[in-house]
Design a protein that fits this description.
mainly alpha; globular; 3 helices
Amino acid sequence: MTATEFCYWLQGFFELTKISHLRPDNLNEKQVEMIQNHLSLVFKHDIDPKAGPPAYQAELQLIHDGKIMRC
């Protein structure tokens, strides 16, 4: 698994735990917040620039937010 793949996995993990109102037992709220902030930095500086131009990234964000469906 690459670092990028791990970041995607970890982001998904936090999205699922947020939906189900669960938090990993070994992490406190501050630690979870710190991890999520770091993930945001990785996506902003490493992953997002490789995803394409701003218009394409905006479309991906809408799909991610559930505002449009992509077939």
